[in-house]
Amino acid sequence: MESTTSGSSNSTSPSPSPKPKLSDSKPRVIKPSEYKAAAACLAEAFAIDDVAQYFIETGDRPNWTAQQKWNLHLRIMEYVVSAHCLKGLALTVGPNYEGVALWMPPGSNMDDFCTIVRSGMWRLNYKLSKEGKKRFFDEFLPLLHNTKHEVMGDRDDRSWYLVYIGTKKEARGKGYARKLVEYVTDIADAEGRACYLESSNDVNPIIYGRLGFHMVKTIHLARGQQAVALDIMIREPKPPLKA
Length: 243
Fold this sequence. Notes:
By secondary structure, the protein is an alpha+beta fold. It is 39% helix and 19% strand. It is built from eight helices and eight strands, in the order E-E-H-H-H-E-E-H-H-H-E-H-E-H-E-E. It has helices spanning 35-45, 50-54, 66-87, 113-119, 124-127, 130-152, 176-191, 204-210, and strands at 2-3, 28-29, 89-93, 99-104, 160-167, 195-199, 213-221, 228-235. Strands 1, 2, 3, 4, 5, 6, 7 and 8 form an eight-stranded mixed sheet that branches. Strand 7 and strand 8 form a beta hairpin. Helix 1 (35-45) packs across helix 3 (66-87) and helix 3 (66-87) packs across helix 4 (113-119). It is globular and about 60 Å long.
């Protein structure tokens, strides 16, 4: 899933951003100790994302405040980022975590007991509401797992998986998202591997099309009052350029 916009707005004119250093403009691997700062970027980027809210706006916690919902949203992002720092590839770009991408390399997953415990993912059993747990554990995770296996077939364990990517609102238009994607697609091309993603944003499939991805199918989360769509996209490896 991905989001390149933030749900927050500011009516005042933003002050000019400092020109990023060359080292800031290149993606780098996030250390496990940085997971909270990286998660804050994704939480901002996905603040109004339909999929991110699908596990929070469940209707069975009518007395929850906006702050309580935000805290849960942030915790979910922290657990997911931490898990990718441990078992996947977590990347950031920009001087202050302006963009973050979470990739799962071929043959890897974050479903093992040790990663679930160390990342804090196990806490979702207690933090999500009853309906939220049904949506996350009984619907969302199986749907994504089964769809990826169906679409990729015997390449399922041999492909790169873009799980999350997001940029802060003030970081749009700087090419950060492209760099976070191309960091891995360059590796995938060299290895001859495909890349896979789900898109929860109506605009982003067009953007991903420019990066070599193509639409395969659309799936839906259907437990809510309104179905939430996820577009499935694949990028086939590009052959090496002839000398």
